[in-house]
């Protein structure tokens, strides 16, 4: 793709097809780089996530999407490299959070950073506890970017974070790659289903969160609702306990 032909509306290049066209022959490396950036660097929150993985999985089975020709991708390389990139990116985010702490989040709102995104990540960390939050955050756009440094800042032990980071990273990447590959192999004109497929994935990823919220509400209405609450990590606190 000729960079001089980029349109003025750069938001078009948040779509996965545009990135894959841009990477061309190096599309597999590009996908892994975006996975790493989205999970390890704060600016990665603006990059495509679920839609990119799903589309990349489709392109392991077909080479044409919406009338555009793409470089075929290797499913084995994605299945191996995707989790590694996701795990490595999240580990970097955890390290940066532990190393630089509150400095990462004490910044004014801008076009690529909103304090509400940090608050959303904190909400899931507090609601589900560190282990569940690290896994579930993988399936929630923006939250998966900010929760990793948040966990580091709040003092989640590196070993515990690594274990659940591996679980979440493997489930997130390989599930979307395999789903995309299966649909690309079995469904004619699969490009019609990219956006609906991503929407279904997002809905399915929200179901466990809704269940946890409902369980939490029932617990709040129980006989011990006035009793002492379990200590939970918070940005206003000092550390993970």
Automatic annotation (TrEMBL):
One GO location term (cellular component): plasma membrane
Residue stretches of biased makeup (Basic and acidic residues): 218-232
Protein name: DedA family protein
One Pfam short name: VTT_dom
Record membrane topology: Multi-pass membrane protein
Highest taxon listed in the record's lineage: Bacteria
Transmembrane residue ranges: 18-36, 41-63, 75-97, 161-181, 193-210
Keywords annotated in UniProt: Cell membrane, Membrane, Transmembrane, Transmembrane helix
Lineage of origin: Bacteria, Bacillati, Actinomycetota, Actinomycetes, Streptosporangiales
Family to which the UniProt record says this protein belongs: Belongs to the DedA family.
Domain VTT: 47-181
Primary localization: membrane
Residue span of region Disordered: 218-241
PANTHER family (alphabetical): INNER MEMBRANE PROTEIN DEDA-RELATED, TRANSMEMBRANE PROTEIN
Localization (cell): Cell membrane
């Amino acid at each position: 793709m000729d960079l001089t032909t980029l349109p003025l509306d750069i938001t078009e290049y948040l779509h996965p097809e545009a990135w894959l066209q841009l990477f061309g022959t190096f599309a597999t490396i590009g996908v892994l780089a975006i996975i790493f950036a989205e999970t390890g660097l704060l600016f990665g929150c603006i990059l495509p996530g679920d839609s990119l993985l799903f589309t990349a999985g489709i392109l392991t089975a077909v080479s044409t999407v919406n009338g555009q020709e793409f470089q075929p991708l290797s499913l084995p390389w994605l299945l191996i490299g995707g989790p590694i990139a996701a795990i490595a990116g999240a580990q970097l985010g955890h390290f940066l959070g532990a190393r630089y702490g509150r400095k990462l989040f004490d910044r004014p709102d801008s076009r690529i950073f909103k304090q509400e995104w940090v608050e959303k990540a904190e909400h899931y960390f507090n609601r589900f506890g560190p282990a569940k939050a690290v896994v579930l955050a993988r399936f929630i756009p923006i939250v998966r970017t900010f929760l990793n440094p948040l966990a580091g800042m709040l003092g989640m032990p590196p070993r515990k974070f690594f274990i659940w980071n591996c679980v979440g990273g493997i489930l997130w990447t390989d599930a979307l790659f395999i789903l995309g590959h299966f649909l690309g192999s079995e469904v004619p004109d699969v490009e019609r289903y990219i956006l609906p497929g991503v929407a279904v994935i997002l809905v399915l990823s929200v179901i466990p969160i809704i269940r946890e919220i409902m369980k939490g509400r029932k617990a709040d209405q129980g006989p011990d609702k006035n009793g002492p609450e379990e200590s939970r990590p918070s940005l206003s606190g000092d550390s993970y306990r």
